[in-house]
Write a structure and sequence with these properties.
This protein is mostly beta strands. The protein has strands at about 1-5, 10, 15-25, 35-40, 45-55, 60, 70-75, 80-85, 95-100, 115, 120-125. The strands form two sheets. Strands 2, 4, 5, 6, 9, 10 and 11 form a seven-stranded mixed beta sheet that branches. The protein has a four-stranded antiparallel beta sheet with strand order 1-3-8-7, with no helix packed on it. Strand 5 and strand 6 form a beta hairpin. The protein is globular. The N and C termini lie far apart (about 35 Å).
């Protein structure tokens, strides 16, 4: 399974970006699985951003992203998206998409539970 994340770039504070993640080489539509975004900066460890859990499509967010970021996806097309609004300089990071199979809800935020990772896309929020 290969994941490819794209859509990063330079945006001014208060602006918006939409990240996308495409998976190939695997079929997940009938399984319980979770798609997630994590992010990392040189100064911090990789942290959970948001996740969507199939088959129900329940969504989960880190507290600092609630109300600003929206995760969505198409499990049949193996695509995931994250709309990021009201971006702040502290949102600057490399964003990674990941897939984990058969995750229970309590493990959604645990990066160790995710098996497949994309290469990351850089988001820079700066004026």
């Amino acid at each position: 399974v290969q994941l490819q994340a794209f859509g990063g770039g330079l945006v001014q504070p208060g602006g918006s970006l939409r990240l996308s993640c495409a998976a190939s080489g695997g079929t997940f539509s009938r399984d319980t699985h979770s798609w997630a975004w994590f992010r990392q900066t040189p100064e911090k460890e990789r942290e959970f951003v948001a996740a969507i859990r199939w088959p129900g499509g329940s969504t989960f967010y880190a507290d600092s992203m609630k109300g600003r970021f929206t995760i969505s996806g198409d499990k049949y097309k193996n695509n995931m998206y994250m709309q990021m609004n009201s971006l702040k300089p502290e949102d600057t990071a490399v964003y990674y998409c990941a897939i984990g199979r058969r995750l229970i809800v309590s493990s959604i935020r645990d990066q160790e539970r995710y098996e497949f990772w994309g290469q990351g896309t850089l988001v820079t929020v700066s004026s």
